[in-house]
């Protein structure tokens, strides 16, 4: 009797395991089908997020908006648990070129924590990361402005500078912005004076 009871208990456990496996498989299949058919998985309105639109236009990304494909290399996403990237490698590659803290760390590692200005004798790790194209108050949120290398037109990219050289660059950029603001104010003042003089003439 005991042996038969053990067999029935083990058979019951096997049936429970088979049902649970079948249920997980059905859920994964349904989730995968939903992922491939819906163009925007996270937005119920059917609109892409700002990050998804930027990934389509990014020069480094091969994704062109097709659902169910990796948003970096455009490969097929096989895992039912993944939504955006086909692998951790693609996710890290996107972070390295679009998230500021990852891009900054990658730029420092690439420069081996030395200032990239020729002839600079600053100590190792006395370095900061600078955007070659000034942000001008644009913030450091996610975006293509964090690309490590310049684009095909030679614009953008990150460079590693020591604190002294970084201060020189940011001071020059601030002076340039101030000069542009002064020129804009002077132009607006001249326009207002011209308009007022023309309105007073008979």
List keywords for this structure.
2 strands; single chain; 202 residues; 5 helices
Question: Would you write up a description of this structure?
Answer:
With 202 residues, this protein is mainly α. The chain has a domain of 104 residues. Helices cover 51% and strands 4% of the residues. Helix 3 packs across helix 4.
Largest sheet: 2 strands, antiparallel
User: What share of the residues does DSSP label as strand, in percent?
Assistant: under 5%
Q: How much helix, percentage-wise, in residues?
A: 40-55%
Strand order of the largest sheet: 1-2
Number of helices: 5
- Helix and strand sequence: HHHHEEH
Number of strands: 2
Form type: elongated
Average of per-residue pLDDT values: 84
Rg over CA atoms: 29 Å
Q: How far apart lie the N and C ends?
A: 120 Å
Outline the low-pLDDT stretches: 32-42
**What would you call the structural class?**
mainly alpha
